[in-house]
Specification:
- Belongs to the GHMP kinase family. IspE subfamily.
- It catalyses: 4-CDP-2-C-methyl-D-erythritol + ATP = 4-CDP-2-C-methyl-D-erythritol 2-phosphate + ADP + H(+).
- The protein is α+β, with helices and mostly antiparallel strands.
- It is 29% helix and 27% strand.
- The protein has 2 domains: 163 residues, Ribosomal Protein S5, domain 2, CATH 3.30.230.10; 117 residues, GHMP kinase, C-terminal domain (Alpha-Beta Plaits, 2-Layer Sandwich).
- The chain has 8 helices and 10 strands.
- The longest helix has 17 residues.
Length: 297
């Protein structure tokens, strides 16, 4: 058994939506999606240690955006409580969450944190003799209670997401792309973007008959799109400036907004190309948040 004072570190990688098609809306108001999530080397970190009292401390470069949030409402603590109930464990944890991912930015930071917390609990509390192990399907079922983007974030591997986030399909390994992320330092709460999309009257996307050919950048550029992009640009016009700046970088193969924004991304042929482009990008756009690197491993 694991010693009481032994903790673990888990990583919560940011995701990008290589494309995001809105294919319909259910009677309960939830939108149906078709998207492929790709996870990046940018990640939050959670250190989870058994303790006498439950505690969550949040630090890191982007933690300031959470300063006004009640700690008890944080998805990490909700995930830990959910796992405790499911596994029949009452153990308390001391958790340090280091935020590197922008908040309310379309890259799944909160969802990734919740998924990482679930995986951390599963590792800390698994015990064959007491039958505390949870199947992958059960983990997905539990994750659905925390939010539509949490189930796809459980594994950190490329995944096709359909329905309202509950239909997951493995899509294989990612190419050795480089990724550059940029955000004009504006928050875009997902509910507000979806509400604006609903009110816009824009038509839904047709289902993909073939594909998705998500590893083909030409397919991503000419066939796929982000259906929330026009709505987000109307709410925050500066997003268009970010997309244009990314598209103009040498070696950029695709520039697009991720999720509900405001973070945008550019794909490059290699991580080295992305890092070289980032050095130039930072000089030209010092006010914007940005990051460059590889896909998550």
């Amino acid at each position: 058994m694991m010693q009481k004072d032994v903790g673990i570190k888990v990583f919560a990688p940011a995701k990008i939506n290589l494309y995001l098609h809105i294919t319909g809306r259910r009677e309960d108001g939830y939108h149906c999606l078709d998207s492929v999530f790709l996870f990046t080397g940018l990640a939050d970190e959670l250190v989870m240690t058994p303790a006498d009292e439950m505690r969550l401390v949040i630090d890191g470069p982007t933690s300031g955006a959470l300063a006004g949030e009640a700690v008890d409402d944080n998805l990490v603590l909700r995930a830990v409580r959910l796992m405790g109930e499911a596994m029949g464990v009452s153990q308390k944890l001391d958790i340090r969450l280091t935020k590197n991912i922008p908040v309310a930015a379309g890259v799944g930071g909160g969802s990734a944190d919740a998924a990482a917390a679930m995986q951390g609990c599963a590792t800390l509390w698994q015990n064959k003799e007491q039958d505390h192990r949870l199947s992958s399907n059960r983990m997905i079922e539990l994750a659905e209670h925390l939010g539509a983007d949490v189930p796809p974030c459980l594994d950190g591997k490329p995944v096709r997401v359909e329905g309202i986030g509950e239909e997951l399909s493995s899509v294989g390994a990612a190419p050795d792309w480089g990724i550059l992320l940029a955000n004009p330092n504006v928050a875009m709460p997902t509910p507000a973007v979806f509400k604006a999309y609903k009110n816009s009257g824009l038509p839904f996307s047709a289902a993909l008959e073939d594909g998705p050919f998500w590893t083909d950048v030409n397919w991503l550029r000419t066939v796929a799109r982000n259906d929330l992009e026009a709505t987000a640009l109307a709410l925050q016009p500066e997003i268009k400036m970010v997309i244009d700046a990314l598209a103009a970088l040498p070696g950029a193969r695709l520039a697009r907004m991720s999720g509900s924004g405001a973070t945008c991304f550019a794909l490059f042929g290699s991580p080295e190309e992305a890092l070289a482009a980032h050095a130039d990008f930072v000089k030209k756009h010092p006010r914007w948040w940005s990051w460059a690197g590889a896909t998550f491993e």
